[in-house]
What does this fold into?
Amino acid sequence: MSSNLTSSAIFTGAVAVSLLLGGCTGAVIAVPSTVELSPAQTAAAGEVTVFRAGAKAAPTRFTKKGTVKGYACNMVVTDPATAYNRAVEHAKYSAALLGADAVIGFSCTLAGTENMCPDCWNCAQCDGTAVTITREGPS
It folds into this structure.
């Protein structure tokens, strides 16, 4: 019985710490890192085509793989690249992990120190639908 009480106390403590830290650091969205990708997946991520929401050139024949998100936050002025570029990269990594070759309906929200990213001076959150484009075979 005391082991259950100990486990319960540990769980409660972990939840309390998570809530406290979450309130101080803003929302955290899990995004893949290049470290999590194999060389083949990294190459595939580089080949993922992004079609912005409303793009006329977006494919009409595809298989949906899932929703992808990219998030990046610049906390200090010396952070590399813009948050927007890193958020796009993260969305492409997520698409590659799903085996997709494109992201359709892609859009990004950029913000400064508003509610979306209170601890960042610049941030971006992007999302879209990862797809595999259906190629037309020879006639």
Observations:
- The mean pLDDT is 74.
- The radius of gyration is 19 Å.
